[in-house]
Design goal:
Layout (H helix, E strand, L loop, with lengths): L1 H15 L4 H12 L1 H15 L6 H23 L6 H24 L1 H25 L1 H5 L5 H9 L3 H5 L16 H22 L4 H4 L12 E7 L2 E6 L6
Antiparallel strand pairs: 1-2
Helix pairs in contact: 1-6, 2-4, 2-5, 3-4, 3-5, 5-6, 6-10
C-alpha cells in the first residue's frame, strides 16, 4: 500500500510536469514537508494526552519540516508557484497526504516513516538526475538569496538538527551558484532518508536522539554545588 501511494504520487507529478522542472519541484516540496507536519501533530496529541513525551523526535521532525520549507522557498523564488493551477494541485495533494500520514502514524509509526523514506528516496533520485542533465546551465545561474541565507549566512542550528547521521557543524556546503543549491537539496534528501531509517529501527524508542542531544565524550556538565564546590562530570555518549 505504501509503495502504491508513493508510485501514484510520482506517476502523477512526473506525467503532469515532465517538461516543467521548477513547477515539478515546487509540487514535490509542497507535498514532501507535509508528512513531518503529520508526525508533529500526532506527537503533540500524545503529549497532550499525557501518554509520553518525545522532545527529540519533535525537534528533529520540526527541523526536517524547516529544511523542506526552504526547499519550497527556493522553488518559489525560481517561479515554480506562479500558476494558480500548480498551487491548487500541490496544496490539494498535500492536504490529502497529511491525513493519510496521520492515520498511518497513529496505526504504525514505522510504516509512516517507511512511506516518508520512499518519498525522500524519490526526491533524491529526481534531483540527482536533474543536476547531471543541467549542470552547465545551473552553474551559470546565481544562487537565490533564500538559499544563501539558509545554507551559509543564517542560523544553522536547525540545518544541523535534521541530519541525524551527521555530526553537528560538520556539513557546511558551498552555495556559490544554482548548481550548488540543487546539489545541496539533493544531499539534504539523502540525509532525510538516513533519519527516516533511524526512526524505523526496533530500538528507536531508546536510541533515537537529535544531533545536538547526543553528547561527545569531551562534553562536561556542571552539577549543582556540593558543600559549596562545583562538581564537573564527564559524560560519555555510550552511557546516555
Amino acid at each position: 500500500m505504501i509503495r502504491f501511494l508513493v508510485d501514484v504520487l510520482v506517476f502523477v507529478i512526473n506525467t503532469l510536469y515532465r517538461d516543467r522542472a521548477y513547477q515539478r519541484f515546487y509540487v514535490l516540496e509542497t507535498v514532501a514537508r507535509v508528512p513531518y507536519f503529520s508526525f508533529l501533530s500526532v506527537l503533540h496529541l500524545y503529549e497532550t494526552l499525557g501518554w509520553w513525551r518525545k522532545a527529540d523526535w519533535l525537534k528533529v521532525h520540526f527541523a526536517e519540516s524547516w529544511n523542506e520549507l526552504h526547499h519550497l522557498l527556493i522553488m518559489e523564488s525560481l517561479g515554480g508557484n506562479k500558476h494558480w493551477g500548480d498551487r491548487l494541485f500541490a496544496q490539494t495533494t498535500a492536504l490529502v497526504y497529511y491525513w493519510v500520514v496521520v492515520a498511518l502514524y497513529l496505526v504504525s509509526p514505522r510504516t509512516a516513516y517507511n512511506f516518508m523514506q520512499l518519498v525522500e528516496e524519490h526526491a533524491h533520485h529526481t534531483y540527482e538526475t536533474f543536476v547531471k542533465e543541467h549542470e552547465a546551465e545551473l552553474k551559470a545561474a546565481p544562487a537565490p538569496l533564500v538559499a544563501i541565507n539558509y545554507y551559509r549566512d543564517g542560523d544553522l542550528y536547525l540545518f544541523d538538527e535534521f541530519q541525524t547521521g551527521v555530526k553537528p557543524e560538520s556539513r557546511r556546503p558551498a552555495v556559490d551558484n544554482l548548481y550548488d543549491v540543487f546539489v545541496n537539496i539533493r544531499d539534504d534528501e539523502a540525509e532525510h532518508v538516513k533519519t527516516m531509517l533511524a526512526c524505523q529501527k526496533l530500538d528507536a524508542q531508546k536510541t533515537f536522539k537529535s544531533p545536538h542531544t547526543v553528547l561527545s565524550p569531551d562534553d562536561h556538565v556542571v552539577l549543582p554545588p556540593v558543600n559549596n564546590q562545583e562538581v564537573e562530570v564527564e559524560l560519555h555518549s555510550a552511557n546516555l
